[in-house]
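Researcher: Let's try something more involved. This one mixes different molecule types, so please make sure each is placed in the same coordinate frame as the others.
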Amino acid sequence: MSASSAAGPGVTPGPVRRGRLRRTLDRHWYAWAMVAPTIFVLGALVLYPLVRGVLQSFTNLTETNQRAEVCSKTLGGAQSCTPNPDRWHWVGLHNYTDLLTGERGHFWLLLGNTVVWTVACVLLHYLIGLGLAVVLNRNFRGRSLYRVLLIVPWAVPAFVSAFAWKFLFNPKFGLINSILVNLGLDPVEWFNHRWTAMFAAVATNVWLGVPFMMVAILGGLQSIPSELYEAAEMDGTSPWQRFRHVTLPGLRPVSSTVILLGTIWTFNMFPIIYFVTGGQPAGETEILVTGSYRAAFEGLRNYSLAATYGVLILALLVVYAAAYRRALKSKGEVW
Amino acid sequence: MTRKPRGRDQRSPLASIGLHATLLTATTIALFPVVWVFLASLKPQDAIQSSEIRLFDHPTLENYRRVLFETSFPSWFLNSVVVAFFTMVIGISMSATAGYALSRFNFPGKRSVMWLFLITQMFPVAILIVPIYTIMANLGLIDTKASLVIAYCSVAVPFCTWMLRGYFDTIPAELDDAAALDGLGPFKTFWYVVLPLARPGLAVTAFYTFLTAWGEVAYAIAFILSDKNLTLGAGLQQFVPRFNPQWDLLTAGAVLIMLPASLVFYFAQKHLVAGLTAGGTKG
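Model: All components are placed in one shared frame. Result:
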């Protein structure tokens, strides 16, 4: 972006062109100047790192081979530096083939986990959120109190609720196992099995995410004109028919947005998996984002492998979003 | 959470009971983890780790005293405040004008800019964290708060733009036209007319950005090395290593983190959702 907003004058004046053309030119210039700083920041903070990340995924960059030179102290105390013989180099698609064939990492396991995790979370978020919103949208006493209390989990930072639920799911003294025992059931070693550990993580994330969905859908419900319901009632429809033919279509714009955002957020949800299961048992509940993070920052830091995971995650999300958008378009949604 | 009197005339008593039963169950589930952590934070260590369910067990403020005076918790807290505050200020001031332009003007390239902002929402921490880390390392910024602020801005700027655009959409464009007739240019219109009207929107966006930075952990764990520079998310983790976790410290710390966040949240939540969804629904 060349035109910064400070360079105000000097762009337009010149020979005065009258009419609409000039006005639109003016407006476009202002618009671009207003958007420019943000674009610039995004370029520096997002696009440039992104390009670097993509490039890194074609190298074998790790913690140990990142230096261009190896320096060693000589006897006198000075340093002598020689080019690093083991310096990182280009490996082409090597990382991708390794990951996708399962040579290194557990891409397919993590992908499976991610899909289960995302579908379960978003489905439960949406259904529970919709249910609660429909209930709250009626008229009864205490409604605003319920509403405020139900929003509480949203105010809790994700890592705090991760620790809180880890505490509740603690096999030895956690509340959940205590309740199970009091009900005459066996306590569960939550983090020793893949699916019980996944269950614990999903429960945490559902708890955390339902309030947002609920409030968003509630907003959507309140924007549906009540005449539609009155007309439907005149026609002698059942409550279920009204729900299917008035409520759900009326919620479409809100639903499509929150489901898309929810999917993206859940797909990339780092703290819950990282803190609640920590990948236990033996990395079987890792999702793609946490797997990539561990590749980058745990053990021998394999930056290139982590970048490769990152590129694959982004590719999956972009394809998903594009498909989603196309599906909406084909149904006549403008979004 | 008191039981409410039975519902109104148009509902049968049975439906009313069902309604309240559903809501009471949901409310209990929503509140219980928080309440339970709070209760646990008041118990001495051995009582926390007992398998018996007891609401109270020798309540004491000892855990809080230890967290506040015997750990680095206060400095983590301060670090989080500083990082979140700067992220918020930078995020808002950068994105307000962009949000306005996207809301008001139809200019070539607008759709692609909108898409750019949406796609950056999709960027997983996984793809940006390594390159940003290497850039920070080259700049010598690892283990500084500045590195976190910069990293968080990569999320905050597109998010704030998206949200603020939604707010500006709700301010009638006729006001702008009137201001233009009075001879104000777009920048002045924005500054003197629209910005004051958008104050609630700005406040909520600012607040939400603050909370996002407040709750971030991935960058915080990767970028910060020394104990005194940690933020809350990364610091709290130190209380619960895989072996010998100190739940007494953790529960007290968790309550101290939740408290201020929930308070502010309570005042902001009404406007929050309108903004979040407005950006998306009015394509």
